[in-house]
Amino acid sequence: MVQHSIALTIAEICRSRIGNEVQLLAQDPDYTEEAKDILKANGFSIVGEFGAGGFAEVDDDSVVFSVFVEAPLKQIIADIARPVLIISTGFDVFNDSEKPWIDAESPRTVDMWKEYNKISFPVSPQDGELMRKLHNLALGYRLNSRRYYVKRFIV
User: Fold this and answer.
1) CATH classification of 2-154 is 2.30.30, yes or no?
2) pLDDT of residue 67
3) CA 109 to chain centre
4) Confidence grade of residue 57 (pLDDT, cut at 50, 70, 90)
5) Which residues, at least 6 apart from 23, have a Cβ–Cβ distance to it below 8 Å?
6) Per residue in 100-153, pLDDT tens?
7) What residues does each domain of the chain span?
8) What is the largest CA-CA distance in the chain?
9) What one-character-per-residue DSSP string does 81-128 give?
10) What is the DSSP string of 33-64?
11) What's the whole-model pTM score?
């Protein structure tokens, strides 16, 4: 749920600085009913409960926050949109089985990243254990827009 807290914070910043309403969408087929209730109580709409329906919500005015990817997210995004902001962990982040997530780079994603400025967020040694799964967190923001209009935040 750490990523959802971060999404709430970033959405609030977008609302206060840009002045528009930001829709919060969450997608994970493994959400429990309790998790769904907590997210809904905090302003999230649950999408794509039975598949990848949340991907249909991604457009050029979206922020996509996806840190524990179990789908080829970057591949899908490269084919459908150029979100304002993409926050994701890299290919060499390992899942609980010590296998890499399936969100690998490809020629399409390499081309997509040419339209973004990427910033990495290193984890300090003091926060190593707390943030160990986020050690490759990166933020990519689209280069070609003068002013961003964020209308939905997808976690």
Assistant:
1) no
2) 76
3) 15
4) confident
5) 45, 151, 152, 153
6) 556 777 888 889 989 988 887 776 777 666 666 666 677 888 887 655 567 666
7) 2-154
8) 43
9) ---SEEEEE-TT-B-TTS-B-S----HHHHHHHTTEEEEE-PPPGGGT
10) HHHHHHHHHTTEEE--TTSSGGGGG--TTEEE
11) 0.79
